[in-house]
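Intended use. Records such as the Gluconate 2-dehydrogenase, cytochrome c subunit entry shown here are meant for training and evaluating sequence-to-structure methods. They are not intended to support clinical decisions.
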Amino acid sequence: MPIGTLYSSNITPDKTNGIGNWTEAQFVRAIREGVRPDGAALYPAMPFPSYARMTDEDLHALYAYFMHGVQPVAQAVRPNGIPWPLSMRFPLTVWRWVFAPSPESARKSAERSFPTPELARGAYLVEGPGHCGACHTKRGLAMQETALTAEDGPQYLAGGAAVDGWTPPSLRGEPRTGLGAWSVADLTAFLRTGRNMRGSAFGNMDTAVHHGTQYLTDDDLTAMARYLKALPAANKAEQNWQTDPAATRALRAGGKLTNGQRLYLDNCAACHRSTGAGYAPAFPPLAGNPVVMNAAPDSLIHIVLTGATLHGTQGAPSSFTMPGFGNRLSDAQVAAVVTFIRHAWGNDASAVSTMNVARLRKQLTPSTMQSAPPTPVDPAPAQPGSAPQPPEQDVSQDTSKPATTPAPTGHQPSEDALHSAPHPAMKAN
């Protein structure tokens, strides 16, 4: 975090290192108000401003689960890496008074009127226990969420700042950078399995699906989807995405290709196709993908550098891994191919610079690189040994040229009928 490194606490019912000695009242106060039993304030990385909306019944069920359904683990809490004076907790009390709702006001907001019970249920899950806004809403100078609910204005769920090098996109109705082109069925499939015909979960969202949303009931998933679809676009000027075949024609024709086009053919087209349509839901489309067109390119750069794994779920047990290219592509090459992807097939996002890639590559430490999410009974897997480093450049090589052997003029990349078939995700709205 901007103030240092924060380590999550032990919330198993171990009586020495965990929460085994907490009463239910103390537990509820920590969840809703962010106050520990000793009176110290919790850092708002724990989303108590959202959890304040939760019902007494749900909090009682949570307490019963933690105390009786989780095995105690005698693991000491690791000290936070936050320097003094930022490590002092008493200013957090003032933060809580200013930015966090009281449990009374939060419950009143949660019980506001909705057109249907389904929308009310969806709002409760998204705004409360789901705490979607903790990542997908921008934060202010004091690291507070600029909106906690849809009542607070269009900034709610309009996209957040990067978390560990992944930029959460808008969950509102923008047709290009949000969920405007997604249906309720698309959303429920994504929350249940981490994949659909329009995209796949990766990074922190893969973990959220793996540990969380895949276990929700169909009714709750549908309620969340309908609530999200009810949120209008924050950027009302954004136009519908329209497919543009120019990039596909250039890739298939070969000949004089740009560096970005050739790097795409050499490294990406086998899975994502010259049409950018991918082979969804296994390999997601890049054409019309909201993450690709996000104003911030961090997520796209990150996944090209380090790769990512879409882990299996109960509804979709297959796991798919995209390899990282950080050890074989230079910063300039990553910038070129990502810029091509953000400009191709009707995508209209800004170009990516070599400095953008270098900055993110420097930030990608082993602790921020994705690993297989642990289960409640298995230990966490070992982290990768190091972040990807740029390949050594041959000083005799002109790095403005493609790193691979160029194809002869008129080269036609082979493409079977499945590659050439129109893809449903490519259709204009």
